[in-house]
Amino acid sequence: MDGARILELVQARFGRAVVETHARHGDHTAVVDRAALPEVLRHCRDEPGLAFDVLMDLTAVDYLKYPGREDGPRFEVVYHLYSIAENHRLRLKVRVDEDDAVVPTAVGLWPIANWLEREVWDMFGVRFDGHPDLRRLLMYEEFSGHPLRKDYPVSRRQPLIGPRI
Amino acid sequence: MGVGSFFTSKLDEAIGWARKYSIFQYPFVTACCGMEYMATACSHYDVDRFGAGLPRFSPRQADVLFVVGTISHKMAPVLKRVYDQMTEPKWVVAFGVCTCTGGFYDNYATVQGIDTIIPVDVYIPGCPPRPESVIDGLMKLQDKIAAQTQRF
After folding, report:
1. What are the structural domain ranges in chain A?
2. Residue among A152, A157, A163 whose CB faces B77 most closely
3. What angle do CA B96, B63, B28 make, to 5 degrees?
4. What CATH number belongs to B3-147?
5. pTM (2 decimals)?
């Protein structure tokens, strides 16, 4: 299905929960409201015409120092969906503030979201509500802070960890 | 002439000579430097000429710990454990800039030089070092082994 048509369908179904849409370089994106996110994801996966059966990527962006976005919500959590049957793609985004950086989990829809969400938690400090096991994925338990946040100092040194017995 | 001192110094030299030509290495290879290590170890450059031809993949049987490649904070305890498991006498070679200083991985994940974890005898800089540099470092290590006070 054409990307513009997908956006039309999603917008028609969810109305004002779709905050904004755009298409750039053939990639169609919908920014959705956080409260509606689980419903939108489920609809995208289960609706026969859409059939997004693959969660290709789940990541986040920190807009702390992004020109023009300094005052807006700090984080954007990004979902890249792909349909094997229909061979089409869609990008969904949800915006969250720093002091309320919580997003509903997608583990129930795509099991791969488990590790992807753990990575986002590890790197950006965005929590996922309802995640079964939200531990750090790449860094170790003793690590303090979230290294891909724009205010994490490049030269910050973490204390060395001792051998685990 | 004190017989004891004469005897001890000569024995020291003999043991030093033996030890410097029987370097059993433990290659702790974590990154791209490993390719250069392999090039050095193979027939063209042939570290066997320096008595270092037999890598042992057990720390219990190794004399020299070759730390080859970037060491991350998660890998650091493993490296420390391997070093502790080696029996005396033991030496450590930091192979490549990442092990010497962290190199250009000046970031949250990388240990900024393995000498923050374990003592290092020879640093071989380079990204990765040419086999000639490695052999140079190895020969410097041999000199160091031969010149030190031998414990046995």
Report:
1. 3-129
2. A163
3. 40
4. 3.40.50.12280
5. 0.80
- CB under 8 Å to B38, separation ≥6 — which residues? none
The nearest CA of chain A is from the CA of B79 a distance in Å of 9
- Residue A151 token pair: 């205010």
ipTM tops 0.85: no
Burial annotation B91-122 (CB, 10 A radius, 16+ → b, else e): bbbbbbbbbbbbbebeebbbbbbbeebbebbb
Question: Tens of pLDDT along A126-151?
Answer: 999 999 999 999 888 888 889 999 99
> Where in chain B are the domains?
3-147
pLDDT digits (tens, 9 = 90+) for A87-123: 999 999 999 998 889 999 999 999 999 999 999 999 9
Architecture of domain A3-129: 2-Layer Sandwich (3.30)
Kindly report the nearest CA distance between residue A81 and chain B, in angstroms.
30
